[in-house]
Amino acid sequence: MLPETVTEYLSANRQRHLAELIELLRFPSVANTEPEACNQVADWLVERLGKLGLEARSVPTQGRPNVLASLHVSEDVPTLLIYGHYDVQPPDPLELWDTKPFEPVVRDGAIYARGADDDKGQLYAHLMAIEALTEAGDGVPVNLRILLEGEEEIGSPNIEPFLIEHADELAADAAVISDSEFFAEGLPSITYSLRGLSYVEVTFRGPSVDIHSGLNGGAVTNPVNALARLVAGMHDSNGRVTLPGFYDDVLDLTDAERTQWEALPFDEAGYAKSLGVDALGGGESGFSVLERRWARPTLDANGIVGGYTGLGSKTIIPAEASAKISMRLVANQDPARIVEGFREYVAENTPPGIQAQVQLNAGARPVMVPPQSPAMEAGKEAMAEAFGKEAAMTRCGASVPITELFQRLLGLDAVLMGFGLPDDNLHSPNEHYRLEQFYGGAVASAAMMCNIGRLLAK
Amino acid sequence: MLPETVTEYLSANRQRHLAELIELLRFPSVANTEPEACNQVADWLVERLGKLGLEARSVPTQGRPNVLASLHVSEDVPTLLIYGHYDVQPPDPLELWDTKPFEPVVRDGAIYARGADDDKGQLYAHLMAIEALTEAGDGVPVNLRILLEGEEEIGSPNIEPFLIEHADELAADAAVISDSEFFAEGLPSITYSLRGLSYVEVTFRGPSVDIHSGLNGGAVTNPVNALARLVAGMHDSNGRVTLPGFYDDVLDLTDAERTQWEALPFDEAGYAKSLGVDALGGGESGFSVLERRWARPTLDANGIVGGYTGLGSKTIIPAEASAKISMRLVANQDPARIVEGFREYVAENTPPGIQAQVQLNAGARPVMVPPQSPAMEAGKEAMAEAFGKEAAMTRCGASVPITELFQRLLGLDAVLMGFGLPDDNLHSPNEHYRLEQFYGGAVASAAMMCNIGRLLAK
Questions:
Q1: Residue-level pLDDT at A344
Q2: CB-CB neighbors (< 8 A) of A155 in chain B
Q3: In this predicted structure, what is the pLDDT of residue B398?
Q4: I want to staple B398 with a disulfide (CB 3.0 to 4.6 A). Which of A105, A137, A214, A410 is the partner?
Q5: How far apart are CA B318 and CA A102, in angstroms?
Q6: Residue A167 lies inside a defined structural domain of this protein
Q7: CB pairs under 8 A between A and B
Q8: Which domain holds residue B428?
Q9: Pairing outcome for strands B367-368 and B189-194
Q10: Could you give phi then psi for residue B324, rounded to 5 degrees?
């Protein structure tokens, strides 16, 4: 049990902590387009961590810097590695935000801003916990290693060499990653498997310039029509992905998982309503909605553009068209092999008169960690202590690439203990984070540190 | 035969006429987005026509104004109606222009600017002809009615009521439309049939905002994937359009036409090369390239957009996607009936979780005029006189909606006598117009006026 003084301290300092989060959310730290904001937010975090007594620094990479921090308590206590990311998704379409994405606003018990949940609000829980344990408890009971990444939302292109280079510095007995969500409001969950990602962009080029659709229509392969056919052909009529070898390595879900998931309080109609659709769809026949989101690989066009998209009409056969395609992968699929299948499919389905180009934007392997372990137990107890309810063991459809890298490169099976809620509009306009989750996350983090100290004691 | 003094006058005044065309091309008269430039160019044309001795005025419509002008010579001579349009296609993509679209540049014997061929360069032929006949000949030998439209490139949304309202003023014995092209360099042609147009925009709406593709992928119908499937399904594997009733009213081409077209010097490889493609494609099996361009209806996506189209990756299921679709129609198809088929197809192929919207952007009926008539003969002789070669009788895949309206509303079978060349980059970056075609067009116009005066003498 967490000392009462610690929870009281956290309660007493809510307003100040919220003000600090607001400061953090003001940085428009989109990795691809706002490098300066990323440098500034990294420096800001270094300063905050320094004030909490950690040794902290901003470490340059080929892209955005990562923040590294450590707290050495004793040789005799276990070491916990904590991960979060300070970069955020691009905020567009801006016109769909009720308030500006980088001018945080508190209303109806939540804070609205890009990154409020994903992941600034979640990562800040750990800073609050360190402060409370230091100021009002018996000090932090574990050694700490903290990594705050700057390129998570763009597929972590530089994290792998970074982890290899700093492996000694990141060595730990357990790891916690806070970049996930509750199964539902009031039902905390710990995630033991995440989908991976292959993100590609395919471009079809036809005529060297846009040409007149009347003079030439019927004689020239239209890149938009051809790309539509290419993308449409990536699924069959049962919603199965048609890329060569796509399902070859998929780890089937177990009967136990099916049974557990059927018992979860999942309201399909409410889920559809929360997304603003009148019916669900888009997945494979023969699987439940949760199974399709968690345990089956998927393929989605994230964007498409070609030809004239302005006001009114323009009668052209466009010179080119392109689509961004992400494939979500499940254990044991290999992103490289999936991309090979994608390239093969494109090569086989490029019609005469079209030049195709496939560009790989990002990749991440799927991951599964053992759902039973002392660290996992520490996480479950911490969630129960902070939120008053046993955590469900769930999978997650999203990718948190660092999880797989921790497993593969550092030998650490991370505990995915996240504090977001499913309706926080992650990656969408009006992203927000409930204040109760924000404050509860700090309690959970402090409890996690204490539990790790106890359950992994040397 | 045109008096030698007239052709000499035209030769002597080439530089000045070119300077006037350059002035005309500087107006960025895109109908949808540049209303002020359209007003200005209409006023400029009114002033020029006034100086040539015509009564001219700019007539407001619900959209851009039309220029109307007339010259009364005598009750005893026939009346010729001349049509052109001063509005131009949007110039984008701007980055593909070698020089700026509205800063005309002469190089390699051609003038480069948006509208240089389509249609400012072509319409200006008639003004030069009027001037030459007046200044150096025996005067214009016919009564003239001139209509210069301001919304041709956006589907002429206001021209039908305009023609009805001004039918008396436009009454004529023959009509000439200069908004078409030679079959090939050195081979003038007169067009007797044009394709019509149905231009629609279809939007698929899914989730109320862009949502996370990892958390939700597999559970939600993706509007981009669904739209790709919708567009792909508009053609079958033989390149035939699948919309209900699409081919029902198509007038089959005759054996005579097939034979004539086979005799035309059409170089498929050269045509493909001029468009920058390594192979032709995109049309129905069982028809030659010219048949597919001239006598068969087609369906092309002119533009598509949905989701994230910026730099790098964004992992979303987009809230919506839309496509602009133009269908080129041949005699005797009815655009309204085709749009009904389109709506029916969309309704039948909208998957669960998607709301579809179809918007009609523009429509034009196809047209065919009798290839034999005194006016047609006048045009053929004029082309031979100006360009030294008998004109081929051709169809054209583009739409010139005014042709059908002249036939239906004014009872006039127009002579489509155009001076462009097939490689002028109409509707594309680097549109240009050969100076020889520009000067030759003026000779042809003057000869046409003389021939009409003689062949249609009362």
A1: 98
A2: 313
A3: 86
A4: A214
A5: 22
A6: yes
A7: 379
A8: 4-194+366-455
A9: antiparallel
A10: -95, 130
Contact A90 B308 (CB under 8 A): yes
Tens of pLDDT, residue by residue over A103-119, are: 999 999 999 999 999 99
Residues B125, B176 share a domain: yes
Concatenate the DSSP letters of all residues of B236-295 into one string.
Answer: -TTS-B-STTTTTTPPPPPHHHHHHHHHS---HHHHHHHHT-SS--SS-TTS-HHHHHHT
Q: Pick A282's closest partner by Cβ from B197, B222, B303.
A: B222
Chain A, 310 to 369: residues with Cβ < 8 Å from chain B are: 310-319, 321, 323-324, 326, 328, 351-355, 361-362
CB distance from B398 to chain A under 8 Å? yes
Check residues A215 and A114 and name the one with the higher pLDDT: A114
**A299-351: per-residue pLDDT in tens?**
999 999 999 999 888 899 999 999 999 999 999 999 999 999 999 999 999 99
Taking all residues of chain A, what is their mean pLDDT, rounded to a whole number?
95
- Report the interhelical angle of A435-455 vs A4-12 (nearest 10°): 150
Residues B159 and B10 in one domain: yes
Inspect the interface and report whether the beta carbons of A314 and B89 lie closer than 8 Å.
yes
- Kindly provide the b/e burial profile for residues A2-25, where b requires at least 16 CB atoms within 10 angstroms of the residue's own CB: beeebbebbeebeeebbebbbebb
For chain A, the distance separating the N- and C-terminal CA atoms, rounded to the nearest angstrom, is 19
Mutate to test the interface with B, among A34, A156, A220 (most CBs of B within 10 A): A220
ipTM above 0.90, yes or no: no
Residues A72 and A98 in one domain: yes
Task: Look up the pTM and report it.
Answer: 0.81
Q: Indicate whether B257 belongs to any domain.
A: no
Query: Residue B278: what pLDDT?
Result: 94
Position B351 scores a pLDDT of: 97
**Whole-number pLDDT of residue A313:** 87
Of B364, B391, B414, which marks where a domain is finished? B364
Strands (E), A291-340: 298-307, 316-317, 320-329
Reduced to 3 states (helix: H, G, I; strand: E, B; else coil), residue A209 is: coil
- Is residue B267 in some structural domain? no
My answer on whether B16 and B148 are in the same domain is yes
Residue A447 lies in a domain: yes
Mean pLDDT lowest for which of A404-408, A451-455, B24-28, B154-158? B154-158
Q: Report the run of H or E that residue B176 belongs to, with start and end.
A: strand B174-177
Are residues B334 and B221 part of one domain?
A: yes
- Whether residue B114 lies within 8 A of chain A, CB to CB, comes out as no
Q: How far apart are CA A430 and CA A116, in angstroms?
A: 10
Domain end position, chosen among B320, B345, B364: B364
Please identify among residues 192-221 of chain A the ones whose CB lies closer than 8 Å to any CB of chain B. Answer: 195, 197, 199, 206-221
Low-confidence ranges of chain B (pLDDT < 50): none
| Number of DSSP helices (H) and strands (E) in chain B, helices first | 15, 18
* Residue in A89, A219, A284 nearest the CB of B283: A219
CA distance A225 to B227: 11
Identify the DSSP state of A23: H
User: Among all residues of chain B, which has the CA nearest to that of A278?
Assistant: B353
Query: Residue A363 — pLDDT band, cuts 50, 70, 90?
Result: confident
What per-residue confidence (pLDDT) applies to A52? 98
pLDDT at B277: 96
Q: Are the beta carbons of B309 and A303 separated by less than 8 Å?
A: yes
Containing H/E element for A214? Answer: helix A213-216
- Say yes or no: A432 and A306 in one domain: no
A419, pLDDT greater than 90: yes
Is the same domain home to B331 and B219? yes
Q: Say which CATH number the domain at A60 has.
A: 3.40.630.10
Q: What is the DSSP letter of B155?
A: T
Measure the CA–CA gap between B398 and B396, rounded to whole angstroms: 6
pLDDT at A155 (0 to 100): 81
Residue A426 has pLDDT above 90, yes or no: no
* Pair B43, B125 in one domain: yes
